[in-house]
Amino acid sequence: MKVNGKNYKTIWMEGKKVKLIDQNLLPFRFEIIELENWEGICKAIKNMNIRGAGAIGVAAGYAMALAFVQSPGKGGEDYLWKSRKEIEQTRPTARDLFYATERVMQAGIAYGIEAAIEESEKLAIENEEEAKAIAIYGESLIPDSCNILTHCNAGWLGFVDWGSALAPIYLAHRKGKKIFVYVDETRPRLQGSRLTAWELQNEGIAHVIVADNAGAWLLSNNRVDLFITGADRIALNGDTANKIGTFEKAIVAKNFGVPFYVAAPLSTFDPACPDGSCIPIEHRPLEEITEMEGLDEKHHFIKIRISSPGSEALNPAFDITPSSYIHSLITSKGIIQPNNQAIRQLLFG
Ligand code: MRU
């Protein structure tokens, strides 16, 4: 990704320090956070300084590697299991997180600290490579002069680079196709209006931000040709967890006969999960619903209350879209049908 003409990754390791773009400040400020221990990375994942399933996975891999670096000689294995559990509790819906801790833990236990670090770096490289492959397969589904609706942020910032849902859009645009993107604002944390809109602006792609509940209006006015979203976890039968509100979009898409695509790397598929009912749904702090954050006239971040004081809130961060609502899955190994047979073939050959 290019920010002000300079190449960046969302997250990377330098020596034994992890650096990441602070997504809580975007699009208003661009700052890099530097973290030296796994506890700091856990905090950054939980507070969503880094977010999006792909990027969370890479952050978790780095956290697990730093746990090996920090582990005391005596009682080391207990320390590693304790850290792993804490890392995994940060954002429990994102399958990539568990995929990463498992791989780095195995490498570190078998071959030591340097192997754990190497494995975490490997995960970051694979993350970017898979995103590029998703771009190539997904681009083939996008006709010229296409209006696309996306929900949440599944772009550069949700990965090391490129993204999942936005990667095919970036490639289509670079190939000269005329693309227009409707960006769901994505309440409550506004990943659409803050992050996706910022990314599209950086890429020079025409777009507008729409309220989350504009989907039926847009489709009844023939404004959308296809939907693409990312995924946080995909079950073996194709049921997909993604940002809250995704299922509503899929219902609208089906009603109007518009294809609904889900883009994801292999690390997002959960081979231990037969269907959506076993995907854990993260519940986040209620203030995300009752308050809103923005800039005041002096460009300081402020939070304001936007709901009736005294009323309770409920904040599930993800919902499950049943596979019957998904037209196809765009993966790094090709476009497949969201069903048991195709997903087993993808994962196990
Ligand atoms: O809560 P977030 O911002 O981490 O949720 C992100 C999403 O739901 C994305 O669509 C998903 O992770 C797909 S890939 C980045």
* The CATH fourth-level homologous superfamily of the largest domain: Translation initiation factor eif-2b, domain 2
**CATH level-1 class of the largest domain:** Alpha Beta
Given as residue ranges, the uncertain stretches (5+ residues, pLDDT < 50) are none
Based on the coordinates given, report the CATH architecture of the largest domain. Answer: 3-Layer(aba) Sandwich
| DSSP summary: helix tally | 11
Helix vs. strand class: alpha/beta
Rounded average pLDDT:
97
Total tally of structural domains: 2
Query: What portion of residues belong to β-strands?
Result: 15-25%
Which molecules are bound in this entry?
A: 5-S-methyl-1-O-phosphono-5-thio-D-ribulose
What level of helicity do the residues show? 25-40%
Extended strand count = 17
- In spatial order, strands of the major sheet run 8-7-6-9-12-16-17
Radius of gyration over all CA atoms, rounded = 20 Å
Shape: globular
